[in-house]
Structure formats: structure tokens, C-alpha cells
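A quick aside before the break. I want you to see a complete sequence-to-structure record at least once, exactly as it would be stored in a machine-readable document. Don't worry about memorizing anything.
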Amino acid sequence: MYIINNMTTITDLIQEYKNSKFNWGKIDCVTFAATVAYRYKNKEIPNIQEKLTYHDTKSALQWLKAIGINSFDDLHEAPELFAGLKKKDISEVKHGDIVYYIDSEHKSGLLGICNGVRAYFLSTENGLTARNVEECKYCWSVE
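That is the input. The structure line, written in C-alpha cells, reads:
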């Protein structure tokens, strides 16, 4: 088990979102993954609230375009463009890494967080959900 500040585990950080309702720009897959990953590493994302200026699907797409992403299909570019993180192959994933999963049913990508063999995601339809890490395509580490 990975422990932060001698008290909080990565599982604890993820479970804080267990009953969260999806809310663009406040509690969505980008904010969930980034917040948990940075808290796990005891780091802060500089000016995160100023950077997250979207509040619905339309403004989220405009925000993505403003940071250099053309559509939700390219969401896997967000960690690099938004936070300067380097993309790695999923075979290099570690606890607390941000991961990218492609939901083939809804034809969309989700950013989430690795917690061992499982990765957790916050989606519009299902709230907090888990998938096997091996189903994910990319990962990023907060250093």
C-alpha cells in the first residue's frame, strides 16, 4: 500500500470522489486525474482554477482547442499540453500515474489514475468507475 504523509493512501485520494457528480471544469476526468496525481506526489498544479475555464461540453471543447487539442478524441494530449507531462507507454505505468483509457462503447477517451492493477476514471455517465490498467493506452508521471 502506498502512503502519503504517513496517513493518506492513493486509494483514499481516489475514494474521495466515490459519490462525486460529474461537473465540467470542477469534477471531470481531467480535474480528477490531475488533482489525485499531484496530491499523491505532494505537489500542486500552478493556477489550476485559472487554467480550467470551462463549465459545459461546448466550453470544454473550446478550452481544449485553446491549449492545442482539436477534439475530445485527442484528450490523450491534455497531460502534456496542460501540465507539461511526458507521455509514456502503458507498460511503464506506476501507482499514481495519470492514465488514458478509450471507451469503445461511447467512442471517447478518459483520463484517470492508476492504483495498481486497476485504474479509476470519473465519467459523465457512470461517475467513478474502474478498469484494468492493461486496458489503458498511455500514462504520465508527475515528477
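Two observations worth writing down. The beta strands are 3-4, 8-9, 87-89, 98-103, 108-115, 118-123, 127-132, 138-140. The chain has a mean pLDDT of 86. We'll return to this after the break.
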